[in-house]
Specification:
Elements: H1 6-10, H2 20-51, H3 58-66, H4 69-79, H5 100-109, H6 111-146, H7 148-154, E1 161-163, E2 167-169, H8 172-208, H9 211-264, H10 271-296, H11 299-304, H12 306-316, E3 321-326, H13 333-354, E4 359-366, E5 369-376, H14 389-399, E6 403-407, E7 414-421, E8 448-450
Parallel strand pairs: 3-4, 6-8
Antiparallel strand pairs: 1-2, 4-5, 5-7, 6-7
Length: 452
C-alpha cells in the first residue's frame, strides 16, 4: 500500500498524534545543517578556484564547483524521503565509457547538472536561511516559554524573569503558566511547521525532477517488462519441448517398438498389413514430433551453442548452405535464441521462395554486436509484406535492442542481416547466460526492407 505524504497527513486530525510533526522538524533542521555546509563548500571552491585560476590547480576546483550540485541533489533526493515517500528518480545517465574523464564529459553535457547547480546556489543562499528562521522561531518561542521556571530559579534569583524579552514574570505561578503555554503552543505551531516542510519538499521535487528522466524511466521499465515477457515465453517453450520430448515422443517410441515386435510374430493377413501400416504411421508421427520439438527449442542450441545449431539447420535445408561463424565463445542465451530463429526463418524463405542454388551464413562479433548475415544467389525481388515470420523475428530482436535489415533487389541477391548488441560469455552456464548485454531502450521498428 502506498504510504501517505505530508500534504495528505496535514488534512487529517491524526497529524499531531503521528510521526509527521517530528519528521517535518527533522527535515527542516537537517536542511539548515546541509545548507550551511553547502554554502561554506561553494564559497571555498569559488573563492579558492577563482584565485588560483591563473594556475592549473584552480581549474579542478572550479570544475568541482560546477559539479557540486550533483552530490547535493543526490542527498536531497534521499532527504526528501523523510516526508515524501514517492521516489525522485536520478536524471543522470550512465557514461558511455569508463573512467573519470568520461563521467565528467557526460555530466557537463547534461541539463540536469546545470539545473542541480542552480538548485545548490538557491539552497545555499536563500532556502536554508529561511528554514533556519522557521525552525529557530519555533524553538525560541516554545523553548523560551518552557524554561521560564528554570531561568527564574537560577538567573532571576526566584524573584522575576523576562519571558522572551517581552514581559516580566514576578512569581513562580506566572513562570509555570508560561511553561504550560509552551506545551499548549507547540501543537499549534506544528501545523505551520508541517506546511513549510511540505512546501519546501514540493519545491525540491519541482526543481530536481526531470521530465526527460521520467520518460526514460518509463521506457526502461517498458524494456524490462518486455524482457520479462520474452523470458517467460522462452521458459514456456522449454517446458513444452521438455514435455513433448519426455512424454509424447517416448510414448510414440514405445508404440513403434510394440508394433514392430507384433509384426515379428508373423501374423496372417490382413492383420500383418494393418500392423505394417500402423508401424509406418507411428514412425512418421515420431519424425514429425521430433521436428516439432526441434522447432520449439532445439537441444543442440542449449548444449552446444549458436554455431552448431545453425549448422544443424543448414544440414537439414533443401538448399546447400555454407556456414561460417567466428565467435569467441558462448553468447547470452536470449541473443543465441533470437539469432537462431532469425537464421531458421531466413533459410526457410530461401528454400521456399528464392529459387536459389545455394546460400551462405556468416556470423561474427563486431563492435560489441553479433552480426549474422544470410545471403542467397536467388532471383531476388522477394515480397515480405505477406506472412508473419519476419515480423516475429523483428519483434524478438527488438526486445534485445537489435536491428533486422532485409535487401532483395530484382535479380538478387537477397541479403538478410541481423545485428544484436551482446558480449561473449565464454563457457558460462545457462543461468549465467540468461542476461543480455544491455537493457532495451525502446521498441524497434519492423524489419527494414530495401529494393533496388
Amino acid at each position: 500500500m502506498h504510504s501517505p505524504s505530508l500534504w495528505q497527513a496535514l488534512r487529517t486530525p491524526r497529524y499531531l498524534r503521528g510521526r509527521w510533526p517530528w519528521r517535518s522538524a527533522a527535515y527542516l533542521l537537517s536542511g539548515v545543517l546541509v545548507g550551511f555546509a553547502t554554502l561554506v563548500s561553494l564559497l571555498l571552491l569559488a573563492v579558492t578556484g577563482g584565485t588560483l585560476a591563473v594556475v592549473v590547480i584552480g581549474l579542478p576546483l572550479l570544475l568541482m564547483f560546477v559539479l557540486a550540485g550533483i552530490p547535493l541533489a543526490a542527498l536531497e533526493r534521499r532527504r526528501l524521503r523523510l516526508i515524501d515517500p514517492a521516489v525522485l528518480s536520478d536524471p543522470h545517465r550512465e557514461p558511455d565509457g569508463t573512467g573519470l574523464a568520461a563521467w565528467v564529459r557526460v555530466r557537463l553535457k547534461e541539463p540536469a547538472t546545470w539545473r542541480e547547480l542552480g538548485y545548490a546556489l538557491l539552497f545555499a543562499f536563500v532556502l536554508w536561511p529561511l528554514e533556519a528562521l522557521v525552525v529557530g522561531t519555533v524553538l525560541v518561542v516554545c523553548g523560551g516559554l518552557l524554561v521560564t521556571p528554570v531561568v527564574m530559579a537560577t538567573v532571576g534569583g526566584g524573584e522575576e524573569v523576562r519571558v522572551l524579552k517581552i514581559w516580566l514574570a514576578h512569581s513562580y505561578p506566572q513562570a509555570f503558566t508560561a511553561a504550560l503555554a509552551s506545551a499548549l503552543l507547540l501543537p499549534v505551531l506544528a501545523y505551520p511547521l508541517g506546511v513549510v516542510a511540505a512546501g519546501r519538499a514540493a519545491l525540491t521535487r519541482h526543481l530536481l525532477s526531470s521530465r526527460e528522466a521520467a520518460v526514460d524511466s518509463r521506457i526502461e521499465e517498458l524494456g524490462r517488462s518486455r524482457m520479462r515477457l520474452v523470458d517467460a515465453f522462452e521458459a514456456e517453450r522449454r517446458r513444452i519441448e521438455r514435455d513433448l520430448h519426455d512424454g509424447a515422443q517416448q510414448r510414440l517410441v514405445a508404440l513403434s517398438m510394440t508394433l514392430g515386435l507384433a509384426r515379428l510374430e508373423n501374423p496372417g493377413e490382413p492383420l500383418e498389413g494393418l500392423l505394417a501400416k500402423a508401424h509406418d504411421e507411428a514412425g512418421t508421427a515420431l519424425v514429425e514430433i521430433r521436428e516439432l520439438i526441434r522447432g520449439i527449442h532445439p537441444q543442440v542450441l542449449t548444449d552446444r551453442g549458436l554455431k552448431d545449431a545453425v549448422e544443424d539447420v543448414a544440414d537439414r535445408s533443401t538448399v546447400p548452405v555454407d556456414v561460417r561463424f567466428e565467435l569467441p565463445g558462448r553468447l547470452p542465451e536470449p541473443v543465441e535464441t533470437a539469432a537462431y530463429f532469425a537464421v531458421s526463418e531466413a533459410l526457410a524463405n530461401v528454400a521456399k521462395h528464392s529459387g536459389a542454388e545455394g546460400a551462405r551464413v556468416r556470423g561474427e562479433i563486431t563492435g560489441g554486436e553479433l552480426v549474422v548475415e544470410v545471403r542467397d544467389d536467388g532471383a531476388g525481388g522477394a515480397d515480405f509484406s505477406g506472412g508473419t515470420g519476419l515480423q516475429g523475428v523483428a519483434d524478438r530482436i527488438s526486445v534485445l535492442d537489435g536491428q533486422l535489415l532485409v535487401s532483395s533487389p530484382a535479380g538478387g541477391p537477397t541479403v538478410f542481416r541481423v545485428r544484436i548488441p551482446c558480449r561473449p560469455t565464454g563457457t558460462a552456464t545457462s543461468a549465467e547466460r540468461a542476461v543480455p548485454a544491455g537493457i532495451p531502450a525502446a521498441p524497434a521498428a519492423a524489419p527494414t526492407r530495401t529494393r533496388t
